[in-house]
Amino acid sequence: MGYFKEINLNNYRNFENFFLEFKNGCNIILGNNGSGKTNILESLSLLEKGRGFRKEKIENLINFNNRHKDFKIFSLFNNKNINFNISAFSLNQNKKKISVNDNSDLTSIKHFESLFSIIYFLPEMERLFVSSPSFRRNFLDRLIFNFNKNYNTVVNKYKKAIAERQLLLKNLQYDESWIKNIENNIVEYGSIIYKNREEHIKVLNKILKAINTSKHFSKDFVLKIQDNFYETNKKIYENKDMYASQLHFNRKKDLFQGGCSIGPHRSDILGFNRLNNFNLNQLSTGQQKTVVLLIILAQSEYLINELNLHPIILLDEICSHLDDSNRELLLYLTNQLKVQVFMTGTEKNFFSFLSTKAHYCNIT
Fold first, then answer.
1. Are 100 and 108 in contact (CB under 8 A)?
2. Rounded to the nearest 10 degrees, what angle do helices 176-215 and 285-307 cross at?
3. Cα-based distances in Å from 1 to 109, 114, 116, 164, 275
4. Distance CA 241, CA 186 (A)
5. What are 277-287's pLDDT values in tens digits?
6. pLDDT confidence of 94, banded at 50, 70, 90?
7. What is the pLDDT of residue 321?
8. Is 335 exposed, middle or buried (0-12, 13-18, 19+ CB in 10 A)?
């Protein structure tokens, strides 16, 4: 398994120059509120493709005392006793770059991406099933991105095509071949998104059912896609002509309503109890947290057992609403799975239930 051995932050967030060593296994980052615990986790997420788990603008990642300089994140990543020098840095305060052993070519980056993936839990995920549909879609899409690094590109191209179509519809004298080409792109990218979401929900539900049966965790639930267009046209990704025809038919409606009335951007990801179809949005915050941790556990087991990919797990401010089920899940993540885990908190005694092997980093 791969793991981060250390990190050095230069001109990043509240850190001018900061160094921290990590252990393979469970790492607990302790500090007062505002000390930069979450910033450290975010810096690790920035070593992966994308804008990190906060999806911040580059200018907001730069230390406020030195806005004219770029930030730099240096890390040492070990995989099978081979060390990789990984860095993420800004260019001209407006673009992020990643390098592997001082090399930024695509081959090096893709090789590093194949060695690890990051799963994260943020405090706002405690209310996953009462958040917005877009929040839940992004949650599922992030899980797919864990093992399909091209998936985000497809999602972004889909969103761009949706926006282009709407702008063109506003021009009542648009070129028919032009809008048809855009709608074909929407169908192509939308079909990929539908198929990936459907397949991964099936994977998660299968693993979750096994986890609930064998580990006796508290909730027996199933994830479902809610989308009238998708539900009416099962496997819509196999009938692209019908998908395109419906987009054509909806042009006038979409012009007046704005946006696009069908497609995976209209989907919601819901959870229900298997036995009585009880909607998980009725659960308490602590119970919803249990569900999210179970999904993270199922995702981890899928990556490890099916793809031989050991994720890095980032758990920010994880100690709120910790009941026995949630403690048991965290113990399983840290003790049974061979993964590197990072947790943040304000007091050491919050983590007293963990193994004495946990590595504590106090940044106060």
1. yes
2. 100
3. 18, 12, 8, 43, 37
4. 12
5. 899 999 999 99
6. confident
7. 86
8. middle
- List all residues 6 or more positions away from 289 whose beta carbon is below 8 Å from its beta carbon: 125, 126, 320, 321, 326
Structure tokens at 319: 């100690």
| CATH domain 125-308 topology | Glutathione S-transferase Yfyf (Class Pi); Chain A, domain 2 (1.20.1050)
Q: Could you tell me if 96 and 104 are in contact, meaning their C-beta atoms sit under 8 angstroms apart?
A: no
Is the Cβ–Cβ distance between 3 and 311 less than 8 Å? no
Delimit the domains of the chain by residue range: 1-116+310-364, 125-308
Examine the pLDDT at 62 and tell me if it is beyond 80.
yes
In 94-243, which ranges are E strands?
A: 95-100, 118-121, 221-226
338: pLDDT confidence band, cut at 50, 70 and 90? confident
Are 90 and 98 in contact by the 8 Å Cβ rule? The answer is: no
Classify domain 1-116+310-364 at the CATH class level: alpha beta
pLDDT grade, residue 219 (50/70/90)? Answer: low
What CA–CA distance (Å, rounded) separates 232 from 230?
6
What is the gyration radius of the CA atoms in the chain, in angstroms?
A: 22
3-class SS of residue 248: helix
Are 362 and 28 spatial neighbours (Cβ–Cβ below 8 Å)?
no
Cα 137-143-148 angle, rounded to 5 deg:
115
